[in-house]
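On clarity, I found the account of how folds are encoded harder to follow than it need be. An entry of this sort, consisting of the sequence and the corresponding backbone structure tokens, reads as follows:
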Amino acid sequence: MGKDRTDKSLPQPHKRPSQARAKFTVDSLYEEFVRIWRRDGPEAATTRAIAEESGYAVGTLYEYFPNRTALLSGYVRHCMEQLCSDLAAANTALAGEPWETRLRKLVRLTLDEDGQAPYFDREMLERENQIASDARHRQIFQHLARTWSQCIAQWEDFPGAVDDTVIDILLLTLWGGRRYSFLVDTGTPDQRGELSTRMARALLLPEE
């Protein structure tokens, strides 16, 4: 079995933006990156093209990303952070609603049924092994699992506790299905969502 790749062997963003202005800059770079990628294809989304169309100097882009691969790495992390933020916000907004309603919303968001998540496509999926180590993939998955666990812990009417292993299995199914849907498209988003919610409910409920 091959040795686990380390983050040091893969291009990574130079730094994470912490100030509002820096976050706005990076978000703008991501927007142009995706716009060019979708309009002209992946190869057209070069650092120079992104800088020119976003109105920033190439040097500004290089302050955050050493190259395009590092930018894609940062963008994938951005997608996951946005998903986790959306899950937490939606769960809070539905406080007081039955746990089944909140579960359906979390499934809907995780599967991106409404198409509101940051753009991601098959080409990006096929490049994931070039931008993140195995350890990084595990960290991303663990972040998503923690978010789901924290949401479920707020369901006051949920009948029982949920083991972390159950959360992992649930998310492997949901997240894996969402990723694989780039390669095999079966059913409508709503159909997949309804069936996935039924599966999630069965996994989460304690055995009779």
About this structure: Residues 68-93 form the longest helix (26 residues). Residues 37 and 55 are 17 Å apart (CA to CA).
